[in-house]
Design brief:
Length: 812
């Protein structure tokens, strides 16, 4: 027989009168036994020499790295220095801000460590185990257990995990686009090199590992690509930009405040230092960075409980911004398995003979896809038949083929694939195919090839022999998931390699809006703008090639859409790689899992709404609470400037602002950041936050300074500063509480309760004598406290009006 992967072109017909048999092959050479691979002793020797593929599957940060990243920050350094100063010059109450920072940093480390453990655990669950032949027997092992010289078996969808030399090839085609950028698959023959980072698109075979570990090509890239990271997102980039601006504002303001309090006013040294630090500390929005990290980490943990592996943390943010999701039908809307509903012979062909041909085609493919597996289940392999040549299925061709020796000196070449690809336009069988497709059934055509499998177009002139009707199993959760996307105003586009009418019928059964708007991708325009318009106008696309999937994703992005792509097959890899967010099923090919940012390990499409909801919760809530933090930064900077210009004592000690920050920002922000939020994330994070923070902070600072200067005029005597500070604190608290009340909208019972609890806690501080002493807050008389309340009410009303005007006149 011919070696697998070589093509049998055949010889003359031996005389079977039912069907023209084609050419007769030369005598088959003796079979070559497969290589046995390394022995156990050879593996042990390689391990002893250190020739092991020791690149970790996932290179997440260690606990020490997590701790360093959370502790050694610019603002922790500033706060730390100020904390040490305060420990020496002021009561412990004025050093509370330092303990809060320590607690916050500890929470951040703990949550990120939990997220790391979750991710690493899921990565092990979702790790693909290559098949390695040892002692003559194939078996699955961990990627890290591969040694130099191992013989690794590969098939469609498998990723090349180490560099190697091809030893066996059965129509082996490898896609190296992730390494070279070239989209066309490369045919690999024995003796040729394969590189890690590429993947198999068709056929199968085996290769011997020639480079392992960090010597393998793309190993460093793969290690870096899977690194646990909190960067490269609009949210974190926006926060970094804000912190940069805050630093620029803070440094000169702090210098002016130091000079004002220590030199100009000639105050008591310790008191001057305490009030200077009290002015500097609240300028730092240190909790914003912490809260972002915690929100991301908790998001990873929540999704991990649903068997969702987030390979890159910013993917949570990306999904929150998605407005278009491209779905592959097979494995997403339908389950992987299929059932043969009927076999319909054409042109008088004998059904029993057709079943034997189908059984032989199935038996000759060592790695059948879902369609062929259904054929195998329905048609057992015939006795005495053997495969003498194969043409593996590829998404670009839409068919597979094999040359069969039928055991009676009869040799025929058969093709099995898409009827509308193999049949001529107007063929009689197409009408029957269309009718079946309209019922949501999948149809394959069995046809006899006119020539061999090695020609430029093996399907040319093929003679139709039978239609194989397949019934697809709909995912029970698909309809609810599509309904969720519709409710969330996320457009769903079904992009499939199957017949467009058939896919549209399946989508219609699941209730997809616009499922009747189907389009044959072979008619898609080439121009990106026209392609994007066609995509906007239609919902279901069939007969899409892998390259077209990639082009369609790019066209949607060019129209301003944020695109998520789901898929599980090797034909989805290019589109998954280019989409804003790639989502792979856990049972999908290793190549799709490698390039996707999110892997659904439970293979459940219904998990996707949870991922989208988690992303929206994180991003929407961080945008909300960022306003709280930055209002504080703005009013702190402006208050310091006003104090410097007026040459007065800074009104607050650190303990006052620690109390205010805890009650109006720290505690409420934590609850608000973890609350449900279904709003789709919007772009322009910095503009969106600062357009509220700047006017809110300015009004809060002016109101507080007005109360402070009024109190300075009202109270007299050498010990009047505590009373002045208490009045100013009351105004600032009430204004900040109103900012919190606005941010907490829309109200629910727990949000109202949160705001009320924070107000009640402040009242307790004002009412309990030992707390009054601890926080140095004591309202004196009734006139000035009520004046402080009145100024706060005016400021709160002004913030309400200004923010509504901002919404109306300064849309982002």
């Amino acid at each position: 027989m011919t070696q697998r992967g070589q093509v049998d072109t055949g010889g003359s017909d031996s005389g079977n009168s039912r069907i023209d048999t084609g050419a007769e092959p030369d005598a088959a050479p003796p079979a070559v036994p497969p290589e046995p691979g390394l022995s156990s002793a050879e593996v042990a020797e390689a391990v002893a020499r250190g020739e092991v593929n020791d690149v970790p599957v996932r290179s997440s940060r260690s606990l020490a790295e997590i701790a360093r990243a959370n502790i050694f920050t610019r603002f922790n350094a500033i706060i730390g220095v100020l904390w040490v100063i305060m420990l020496f010059v002021a009561p412990i109450q004025d050093s509370l801000f330092g303990f809060v920072i320590v607690a916050n940093t500890g929470i951040g480390i703990f949550q990120e460590w939990r997220a790391k453990r979750t991710l690493d655990g899921l990565a092990v669950i979702g790790e693909a185990k290559p098949t390695v032949r040892r002692d003559g027997r194939p078996g699955e092992i961990s990627t890290s257990e591969i040694v130099l010289g191992d013989l690794i078996e590969i098939g469609p969808g498998d990723k090349i995990v180490v560099d190697g030399e091809v030893r066996e090839a059965d129509g082996l085609e490898v896609d190296e686009s992730l390494l070279t950028g070239e989209a066309d698959p490369v045919v690999k023959r024995p003796g040729e090199e394969v590189m890690s980072g590429s993947f198999v698109t068709a056929g199968g075979g085996a290769f011997r590992a020639t480079k392992v570990g960090r010597e393998a090509y793309a190993a460093q890239l793969a290690e870096e690509a899977s690194r646990f990271t909190l960067v490269h997102s609009e949210l974190r980039s926006g926060i970094s930009t804000i912190l940069k601006y805050v630093t620029w504002m803070m440094v000169p303001t702090a210098i002016g405040l130091v000079v004002s309090q220590l030199v100009v006013r000639d105050n008591d040294f310790k008191n001057a230092v305490a009030r200077t630090v009290g002015g500097i500390v609240p300028m730092v929005p240190e909790g914003l960075v912490l809260l972002t990290s915690v929100a991301f980490a908790i998001g990873v943990i929540r999704l991990g409980r649903k068997q969702c592996l987030v390979q890159e943390l910013p993917a949570i943010e990306g999904l929150a911004r998605v407005d278009t999701v491209c779905l592959d039908k097979t494995g997403t809307l339908t389950e992987g398995g299929m059932d043969v509903q009927a076999i319909r012979p054409l042109g008088g062909a004998d059904e029993a003979y057709v079943r034997r041909v189908l059984g032989a085609l199935g038996a000759g493919d060592p790695r059948p896809n879902a369609s062929l597996q259904a054929v195998i289940d329905a048609c057992p392999a015939p006795e005495g038949w053997r495969t003498t040549g194969t043409l593996p299925f590829s998404s670009a061709r839409k068919y597979s083929g094999a040359s069969l020796d039928e055991g009676d000196a009869t040799h025929r070449t058969w093709l099995l694939g898409a009827p509308d690809v193999l049949l001529r336009p107007g063929a009689e069988a197409l009408a029957e195919t269309d009718a079946l497709n309209e019922r949501g059934l999948r149809v394959l055509l069995l046809s006899r090839a006119a020539g061999g499998l090695d020609g430029p177009d093996p399907g040319a002139g093929a003679e139709p022999t039978a239609l194989v009707v397949l019934e697809q199993r709909l995912r029970p959760d698909a309809a609810d998931t599509l309904r969720y996307f519709e409710d969330q105003h996320v457009a769903a586009k079904v992009i499939s390699g199957d017949n467009a009418v058939s896919v549209g019928a399946v989508a219609g059964k699941l209730g997809l809006p616009g499922a009747e708007r189907t389009y044959d991708a072979r008619k898609l325009p080439k121009e990106p703008e026209a392609l994007a318009d066609t995509l906007d106008e239609n919902t279901v696309f069939g007969r899409v090639t892998p390259q077209q999937k990639r082009d369609m994703v790019g066209a949607l992005q060019a129209h301003g859409h944020t695109v998520a792509m789901t898929g599980d097959g090797v034909n989805d890899v290019l589109a998954l790689k280019d989409a804003d967010i790639g989502v792979s099923m856990g049972s999908g090919s290793e190549a799709t899992r490698a390039v996707a940012q999110i892997v659904l390990l439970n293979n459940s499409f219904s998990t996707l709404p949870s991922v989208v909801a988690e992303g929206r919760r994180v991003i929407g809530n961080i945008t909300r609470v960022a306003t709280l933090f930055l209002v504080k930064t703005v009013y702190s900077v402006l208050l310091a400037i006003l104090v410097v210009l007026s040459q007065t004592e800074y009104p607050f000690l650190p303990r006052h602002l620690t109390l205010l920050s805890t009650l109006t920002i720290g505690v409420p922000a934590f609850f608000l950041a973890l609350a449900p939020n279904k709003e789709r994330a919007q772009p322009h994070f910095v503009k969106r936050v600062m357009r509220y923070a700047i006017p809110g902070g300015v009004i809060a600072a002016l109101a507080t300074f007005t109360t402070y200067m009024t109190a300075r005029a009202y109270y007299t005597g050498p010990d009047s500063l505590p009373a002045e500070t208490s009045a100013a604190t009351l105004t600032l608290f009430l204004v900040s509480l109103w900012v919190l009340a606005i941010i907490a909208r829309p109200y629910t019972w727990w949000r109202v309760g949160l705001v009320a609890t924070m107000a009640g806690a402040f009242l307790v501080v004002l009412a309990v004598p030992w707390l009054q002493d601890f926080f140095a807050l004591r309202l004196v008389g009734s006139v000035m406290p009520w004046a402080a309340v009145g100024i706060a009410v005016i400021a709160a009303a002004l913030i309400e009006v200004v923010w509504r005007l901002v919404d109306r006149r300064l849309p982002v």
